[in-house]
Fold each of these.
Amino acid sequence: MGIDDGKELVRLKKRSLYLKRVLLLLVLVLLAKAFYLQVVRGEYYRWRARNICLRRYQVRAPRGRIYDRKGRPLAINRPSFNFYVIPGYLGKGDKPLLLENLSKYLGLSKVEVEAKLAKNKGDRWTPLILKRDLSQGELALVEERDWLFPGTMVVAEGKRCYPHGPLAAHLLGYMGEVGEKELRSDDYYPGDMVGRSGVEKEYEGVLRGTPGWEQWEVDAHGKKRRLKDSSRPVPGDDIYLTLDLDLQEVAEGLLKGKQGAIVAMDPRTGEILAMASSPSFDPNMFVKGISPKEWEALSQNKFHPLQDRCIQGLYPAGSVFKIVVALAGLEEGKVKPKDEFFCPGGYPFGGRVYRCWKEGGHGHVDLRRAIVESCDVYFYNLGHELGVDAIHKYGDLLGLGKRTGIDLPHEKGGLLPSSRWKRKTLGEVWYPGETLSLAIGQGYLQVTPLQLDLMLSQVVNGGWKIRPHVLLKVVKGGKERPWKDRGRRKLPFKRWHLTFLKDALEGAVEDPHGTGRAARIPGVTVGGKTGTAQVVAMKEDEGRKEELPSLWREHAWFVAFAPVEDPKIAVAVLVEHGGHGGSAAAPLAREMIKAYLKRGDGHG
């Protein structure tokens, strides 16, 4: 071996040693890293691995069902498949693919999906609903080609269903997806549905129930593979309403093609037997998610189908208000039943003549005949004797011009004017001529159909103050919790005054000259009062009301109760722009009473 060969061997040995040292160093680094990962940070990465493989998802509780008083379903739940996305499982390349396939196969626009993704409450692992109630075809497509929809899952949940469509829609209310306000609390999650109106909103806490959870083993794309643990949800409580479904169908049938409202109440208890507002809407439209176009069509409709006219519509009471004025006159000692006023067809006061509806006048009229034939001049005289504040006192006692306290949201209070109200609100004094208008239910007065039905009920039930309500009982786990009336008390009216009014109201229907003759029912004694409320002020020389445009015609009122000897039902009917109460509203009240009494008192 030469000298050169020896040098080359030494050089190779040095390189080999260097390489061994580098390899040893790399092994030491790897061992150190493994020690760090498995020992120092081992618990953290074990937790993280479990967290990636296992996901806990909320399970929505079945919503409580709603029934009528006889146990017939008004709002139930049916099976439905909803489509969710979990933003945390969407990688950089996944989102464009998902958006493209959602548009292509499920008809969801990019803007729509982006808006839903923005509702994740800062938690990328909270499932967000993309589409409710998948069709059978959509469900099959999603299940067969799940690789086209990364980060998504299908969940079987209950869907709210109203089997009778628009029937009792205003009373039942409708559902809507939670908004930002609800999402600020820990009680709701994106995609939850809540009551937005009616019973659904009023009893949201009773109907909602308590959600459960499921823990699933998932793959890298968030697809569920195996259920590991779960907690069952607690269903919401069932609700039974005071509503009589048969009577509700009659009420809505009578209002078909009209704008108006019908309220039927048990005057003994305040139970609402029927509550119809027309035109109506189908609450099923809202369950799947109403489109902007559909919402605009409803909310911008000139006939206001979303308004519950029974508790939100405000109208002058017309001659129905004469019941209040008559009671005030009797209680204040301003008039006795046999006291007469002369009606020549008008009442001159303050430089003008306040007309009676009967051009030739009624002649000499006592209080009973004034109610039976609805003489305006009699009540001009009586109203002038009483003054606005005495009238206000008795209207207030009977529940007019303020919320009744019914267990429904968004009730309006209306207005029962007084001298104090005008001074405080308008900064003006009350003029005596304004009292004359109030005495026949015109002027500033604004009431709801429910308020007039309550007023009548409290007059004919012997002077008992009652609270209107729609809840009959709550049923939870087979146990019933009935509604309790905590507001029942005696009103400070003399019994014989109420008896006189009942008799006079019976005469308005049963007497030959009564204005409510169209409400007569053979074999049943009916009492009632007509009302015709002006929409626009009429000049002395204007022609017949029937010649006016329909939107200027008067609203037709009729309130009725039966049987007179033991009232079991009180009805208030309003037909907007219907003209005279005796011809437009009284026949509707008659049909309501007939339908109710022919089945007994409806408490079966």
Amino acid sequence: MATENEIKKGFLAKVPVPLLIAVIAAAASVIVAVLLIVFFSPSDTPVSAVINTDRETEEKEETDTETQTETEEETEEVKEEMLLQADKFPKNESKDFYKSDVKLFNRAVMYTANELKGEFDNVIFKYDGLTLQDVSKNGVFISNDINPGGEFQKLIMSWNADTSGGTVEVAVMAKLSDGTYTEPYSWGVWSAIPGVSASCSRKDKNGELDIDTLDLKEKCTAVKLKITLKKTADKAPILYNVTIATDRAKQEISKNTTVKKVKLNVKKRYQYDVPDIGGRICSPTSLSMVRDYYKEKGFETADTANGVYDNGEGIYGNWSYNVAYAGELGYNAYVDIYDIKALKYALSKDVPVICSVKIKKGQLSGSGFPDYSTNGHLLCVIGYETVDGVDWLIVNDPAKKQVEVKYLASEFETIWPGTVYIVQEKPERYTWRIGEGTDQDILVIADCIPEGRYNRPGGNYKVKYIVIHNTGNFSLGADALSHRNYVKDEGCQVSWHYTVDDKHIYKHLPEEERAWHAGDGREGKGNTYGIGIEMCVNHETLGTKDPTKYFYKTMDNTAQLAAELLYKYDLSIKAVKQHNYFSGKNCPQVIRENDLWDQFLENIQQRYDKIKAERG
């Protein structure tokens, strides 16, 4: 009987040579394809497999031999697929998009744009929000059912958007007990463009929308959102998030804080200092005090009032519009419904809280204001304390000449139904878009290395240089996101400030902090005074010679970033240095070996000149 090996040999001997070669080639192609899928997967590839920086501690500079063996057509297919993936916001970055790190939601639920599911009509999710696909037409998004938690009859919508070039209209369709939906209740057309924003109250058989608050006639558990976007000026509006606050029973942060006493340093503003409209602007005056608290400069209370004005009702106190305006200014802002415990918790987290109150004569007698009354008023709570066993709230009340007053917490609860504005600074992530209106319009995604890590040595130094590197990572998976993951790894020993690829920019450190990138030591000028920028070479699969169009796009993106930084720090083009200048290393290698440095500097200078001309 023939052995198994003999049978195999006999079979192979009978197979025609051309067929055998074809079979072997096909098998090899499958193996290579599998390796490529594993190796180039942007979300699943271990960072250690693709990251190889050009720093002195990372000297390995090999090209990917598997990629070199591909045909030009196969390489282009892989690149195009990678670019399609790059158009989507990284999935592991999206959950907390435009939400603050300190979560202060009580009865409100915030939904970031990319969390919304439903029907898209000329509306797409791009980079950081919902925007128009074709800017020549209006866009409408209708969500699937959204359950903001428990039963509710009262609902307040708020949102954050960039509407400097158009309008956003947010409407709600409540789901009734029989499974049908109400007609849309619209919070009106909102825009940062003066004279456009206008609410549109209405009443029907199912409920009443009174300016900013919807009261339904039956309890509901779900709604659908209808969001309409329209471009009216130079750029399409972008909706970042929507927040639904309801009178549901469940409360998220209603808990005691261990902080016994708080007083935030909030500048006083008196609403009657503004002529003509002083008696009507308690809400924007309170919001102005919060803007002061976050160290905004160069604005007047009247500027805030003009920004929040509701042309439909002719008022300054539309709750939704006040926080929408704060959102336009770059804050994470929303309307919520609080209680005293939630209020104290927010204050203990260093966030002032704007509260809406109604006061009848005598309700603040114990606080020393027996004759104080108002049908509706906004004020800014800045702290709390206990004196001789009695709880007090410290308040900047814009209607009081002295502004800062104290109200008994027990009395305050009787005048305050719980409505608040929460205005927070967003985490540094997702806050800076460079090159707006140009072909280099890119969102800078800042997600810094945690403090205390070896590769975040800290310090606060005057910026003197922009130090240009390129990575030594030629694999397609080694893009800006991968380098973000690499420098945030706990064992990483090197660092720099920005990584740029042909689609994205990630920020890893505050610009004025020292980083380990220039190769000139702890006290070296490059490490200490230089903003390190890494340019990805992840499309240069054939090595450093003859850069691809993707590297030129990366160079353009880097030039725009460098120009913005030169303008920010009032530096000249002479401040832009190669890594080689500080360490002698052949870096940025691709630029140096292709004689692109002068062209790169000229690109930066042109972009800087344009910024200077536009901004002064």
Amino acid sequence: MQKKSRPAPKVFHAYARYALRYPWLLSVIIVTIAITQAATIAAPLYLKDFFNLLVQGPAVPGITPRLFGIIGIVAFLWFVEMTARRLFDVAMIYLEGYAMQDIYSGVFKRLMGHSYDFFLSRFAGSLTHKVTKYARGFELLFDSIFMQFVPTFLFVTGAVVVLYIRNHTLGLALALWSACLIAFQIWVSRMRRPIRAARAAAETRVTADLADAVANQSNIALFSARTFESIRFDRTVHRWHEAVMRAWTTDTWIWSAIGLFMLVIEAGMLFGAVYFWQRGLLTLGDFVLIQSYLITAIERLIALNRELRRVYDAYADAGEMVELLAMPYEVQDQPGARPLAVSVGTIALRGVGFYFRPDDPIYHELNLLIAGGEKVALVGPSGAGKSTMTRLILRLYDVKEGAIEIDGQNVAQVTQESLREVIGFVPQEPILFHRTLMENIRYGRRDASDAEVIEAAKKAHCDEFISRFSHGYDTYVGERGIKLSGGERQRVAIARAILKNSPILILDEATSSLDSESEALIQDSLSTLMQGKTALVIAHRLSTIMKMDRIVVIDQGKVVAQGAHDDLLSQGGLYQKLWNIQAGGFIGE
């Protein structure tokens, strides 16, 4: 529980940096708060004189002009207060709007810089929920500080000073009561903090589990798991319910204690005022002054309880995001990293070692050279490390030992953007944006014209199914491309790579989701795509890579054989075994 409370200073520091980007707006906010509270404190002083004059009666010479004068002054103070509040509201709107815009943009850029593994280990729904709560937390915290905490402090301080000048005992009594109530609220808020943090964590878990279930609705239906998932989700909601009930019950007891504070100060101040009035030390106007200050002070100080709860909620919510934002990038550009310059496209793995767990290495002293313009196929059983190699070349992970070089440049010493810009990658399971087909294909080269996008789609045989849609290239594909079949998504990914036209091409099971007819069509497109490029192709269907310049057989993280298709068959070994299992492949040669 204590761990949840640590980010609080970090949260405040992070939010302060965003607010301080707009010093003029911040200055207007502070000045208008000061003016507003000064007017609020001054008005009861004139009202005190107003009622003291009323007690004297209408027979007093010149009393009416004096009463009208006081009314004019009080009206002016109210006008000043109203004007200052409106300026305050405008400044707050603009500052919070600009700052929250900066927060969303800054958090997005920071998150997108994290590694491939970072997102594999976290729910997308949970991350988006945390980002939203982090931005909203700024609004909640900023509102609490400048709409409650600072105005309350200024008003109570001013009221105590005025009452102390008028009567030392009443002034000190209000000061002592205010200090005790504030201390009590801070104490219970800190005591309640782990309870609120537990509630925030439970809410995050509900959101994450709900998003996970919604994203996997097809799996739930196909495996007849609706009852199972309902029971599982019910357990998550039950834990949330327990956390919420603890928080609400605690709040009820706290409000009961605050009610006692209200009773004590109301009765105590009135008893004291009557006592001093009997001795001629206070006037009727002083009762108006005391009651005006007391009502406002009680209202402001009681509101602190709600605001402290909101603040700790905001801290608990934002603290989760602060921890994520503070995490260093697992893969990051080195200081002084330069853009990668590709002339030939040679890829060299030199003594590469890599592991996810030190006791279970995937590669150890792996060496492999792919000449510029060479077409190399990587084959082997599942789990041999084929896809991991492509991710190391793309630097989605950093090697633990050795180096990967492209045209003699260590990929760890160039910028990630430039590295991935020169590599066209078609993954085994392409994921599309919930955008139009035109936008998804154009993602390969964002400045491409519509005609160039359509040409790439035709080469990848996408145009054939796109033309059947009523909205054509303006058809939205759904979240992660769910409205398209697996083969259609893969053809879109191939079209994207064709449009990108990078000097290095990596195909990771690029035709795995295609039927035989579609695969036959795309093989010609891929052959055209690979012309003049360095190509690394991973395929389980060995018939699709028979015409590669070289086939590299990998097993348990090691290169066990390499050569042309016929040579590898004649050598026997693992390649021949894989070939025989596939009975000569799935597509007629």
Amino acid sequence: MSSFSSPNESSVSVTMTKFRDSNQVPLDPGVYLMKDNEGNIIYIGKAKNLRKRVLKYFSHAGSTTHNEGVEWKTKKLVARVSDVEFVTTENEIEAFLLESNLIKRYRPLFNIELKDQQRYTYLKLTQETFPRLLVARRNRRGEFSGPKGKIYGPFVKGSSKFLTVGLLRKLFKVRTCNALPKMPCLQYFIKNCDAPCIKNVTESQYLKSIESLQEILSGKNSVEKFTKQMEEDMKSASALLQYEKAKEIHDTLRRLNNLRIKQNMERVSYKNASEEEYVGIIRDEAKGNAHLIILTRKNGVIMDRKKFDFELVGDNSLGTFLAQYYSSVPAIPRYIYVNELPESKDTIEASLEKLCGHEVTIIRITESFHNKEKKDIMNLVLRNLHLAHGKQNLMPLMELKDELELRITPSVIDCFDISNFGTTFAVGSRTRFVDGKPSKEGYRRFKIRTISGQNDIAMISEIVSRSYSSLSNKDTLPDLIVIDGGRGQLRSALSAIHRLGLNINCISLAKEKEEVYIHPLKKPIQLPKTSGALKVLQHIRDEAHRFGLQYNIKLRAFK
């Protein structure tokens, strides 16, 4: 893999037969390349500590989620890996940049595929005696098909360099035939080609024109400079009474004028590149997919919208997407607003700054964000995402995620309540909401077995323990547990959760003032009365209370 290593990088390959117990895996930051048994690269990832990250793929302890959809896709990846190669870097920033470059080059099967990449294209000057100018695109393996040649780009679809490939061929008299014919074609007679096929132009003369084209494609020269040179040539030809040559140059300049105007417009557009973009993401963890929308805003006006989807496999994440996407666009905005902060935010910012040469800041917008206008735009992005994927009712859950600072949107929420009547009748209830709606198959009722009297706090511990202690229930663990009560009930529930060895977010909702208790905060938080997040918590709490009271009344009726 030395073809992509730099003096600051080293590469080592570790076969899977030695991999599990091998100390060959570097402890350094860098990039890992997973290969199948045919040697094809199927996944590329980066890590601050390569050994720590990669070993997790091959150990049961490495599972970081209880979600079946995400786990299944990652297991599918691991099952195909027969070899892993590592490229170490000096730091995490270099690892981000190298990972992005390698993904674009090899486009592995399990990495994020930027479906919007058709907006970008490449141009190729072939390595032939008389080179041709072709449009080239990468295939799924990251390779360019067709004849060998030098690649230029990527160019944005709509830019002059893409739209005017035909014009560039005419300007520089680049042949279009696949093979040199024995007789000149129509392009010669309409003066779009100098016919090297009949030796009407020498190889050196032809290559001189190609060099001028190369300078424009590579950015070493501008169309304006080329135009000025042609204007001087036209004046010289006219002064020497070479009127036919002068007219030919004049016609070329007329063709060129359209290209020059478009390039000027493109330069202005690039100079005034978007100062801010909004990136919204939602996940369907059950299916192992993520959906994104990016809104581009320029001078207070929304100029563009792009939609992406990717699979939640391996290390594919919002951070990986941002690094890959913004390393592929012609301009990186000053501010990137998101609805959740990516992992390694500081490293991503530093990586993007290294690419674009200006400061880049990633800012998370929550319901309490100070700028209402920007908050409204992000809500617009999320509304569009939910509408597009049939989950309009997830907006309050997204708000709840932001307010409680959860890692993921709480798709599955369980709520526990104690219903007692004096010191005789005490029962517990559990209600479950999935995507903001009651899911009756997740409801549970409990007769209190180990606690006597009116000890609601101890009873909470009992019903939480019983709810998740059986193996049959561990397949459907919630993303969030809500306890009806205050700080004491929350501590009791957390104690039960920890004894079971579970890692589930848990809060309590005290009814009197509707205060939310979150460990380890000393003071409860109060959500606005109009908050969708609060209404979700109230709904599931009231449903747990109704369900438990119904059971209590039923038991007393049969006493």
